[in-house]
Amino acid sequence: MKTYAGIPQEYAGAEKAKIVLLPVPYDGTSTWGKGADKGPEAFLHASENMELYDIETGSEVYKQGIHLADPITENASPEAMVEAVHKIVKKNIKRNKFVTMFGGEHSVSIGAIRAFNETFDNLTVLQIDAHADLRESYEGSTCNHACAVYEANQTTNLVQVGIRSMDAIEKTVMNEENVFFAHEMATDDYWMDNAIEAMTENVYVTFDLDAFDPSVLSATGTPEPGGLFWYETLDFLRRVFAEKNVVGFDIVELCPNGNSKPSEFAAAKLYYKMLSYKFEQEDAGEEYEVSGLQEISKKVNQEEDDYND
Predict the structure, then answer these.
(1) β pairing state of 66-68 and 98-103
(2) What is the CATH topology of the domain spanning 4-283?
(3) Domain chopping of the chain, boundaries
(4) CB distance 192 to 236 below 8 Å
(5) Contact status, residue 206 vs residue 149, Cβ threshold 8 Å
(6) Plot region of 257 (φ>0 → left; ψ -120 to 50 → alpha; else → beta)
(7) Which of 37, 262, 267, 269 has the fewest CB atoms nearer than 10 Å to its CB?
């Protein structure tokens, strides 16, 4: 059985692993740079070539257990893909797993955010992204990548970080008090403090790789100049994980090409770093306990059990 990053089978089993990784190789609505459906495979290959000791945290987070689930391959329509992601993510949350996802285009996050919002109290969605993604619909679908956080904006506390590209219509629905524009962040020494202050206790992170400056990561569907740099991003993420209850996360929009090895490796390192921050203070032998769940969410219904890991 293939494992995440080639870790030993003893850390990869579905039952004992604290962490579930769901690949979603979907690229049904992207409008410029195609190839996000190849992102999960490239990410997994790059992960196999990482050192698994994290110097910063002094940890080997894979020993917490990381189960690589079967890819979610539903592609009959954007709506069908979103529903499949929603059901599978929700099932794994209720199985007491720390659920992570690697896309695919950003539309894959819609179903995941919906599942987390249904199961966690007073949820903040932290979107780290170059684009606002707040269109109600685009090209005839509400499940387009350009609509990735429209629903989250309506139903959760959405905090947007790194935004530097949007349509005028998106400003009409945007909560600007919770938006941290890249050009303002460049001269604001306190943007991290203010962004964290805007969050509730339970936080889901959706990380679009185009949030990075193209000098850090260029292999993404729509690279935008003026983005985040590596160490400021890690500094922010480590603070979020330390100060809030991060309940899960996704990483999206890696678009491999013939010259994208550095981007693929950066995406692999980012994923591992985020896990290292989440479990930095947790012993590998301790059982993972999901906190912040709504009481109603603690029963798994039969319909969701019909979906495989």
Answers:
(1) unpaired
(2) Arginase; Chain A (3.40.800)
(3) 4-283
(4) yes
(5) yes
(6) beta
(7) 262
